[in-house]
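Repro:
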Amino acid sequence: MSDLTEQSDADPEPLQPLRATHSIRRPFAGARTISALMLREMSTRYGRTPGGYIWAIMEPLCVIFVLALGFSLLIRSPPIGSSFVLFYASGYIVFHVYQQMSLHVSRSIVFSLPLMFYPAVTWIDAVVARAVLNALTAIMVGYITLMIVMVTLDTRTVIDVVPMIQAGLLALFFGFGVGVTNCALIGLFPTWDIIWSIITRPLFIASGILFILEDLPQTAREVLWYNPLIHIVGLFREGLYPMYTAQYVSLAYVAGLSTLLTALGLALLHRHHRDIIERG
């Protein structure tokens, strides 16, 4: 009897190194999962259509040139500088960065839902994979778009890259905060996807792509100041136009709101991700 007791007490001991090994390997397993999800989305989104990433670059270019052509027929000169193409590019590029990040992150769990039932895939893997892929894609598309515009126009503008980088990072951060919050809300209330798309349709006009805030009446300036994209677009334009200073820009406001939305979205997903997966 004593032998059996000693044997049963000794049985659990060999399991300890296995648990320790698992805790060490888990971060690498998570990185592999995120990489696999990124490759899956790349092949799904860009690998099934002719041209792939070329269309991702052509989309913002087409929008910019159409805007420039249309407004050049209506007004003599843009609010800043002499090039309609450069002016609208300075607003649309960072808006496109925000839009793509928020849109794709908001559908992270929906996109990867069939894989959520595998123990190796978690909700945070799906969100991080989409965020990283869209951040890298947005940076590449934005840089190439701007270079094509500047080479086409043969502009000799002296560029200040610091505010442009700050604006790009804030656009990604704000887009991620909006996206992760919407990811939770869409999972809990599917109709929120339609509601959000309706209430944000005027955002293209209200984000300063077609104008500068200083040209608006005082009441409009006070209302639109609370739109974080106004700050991001104004900051980006400071890097392209040395003579322009957007004194209304508040980095603390945009960063603070983005942090709040990110914390809210992650908290909701952490609490309700099982319900979202089961409903999906």
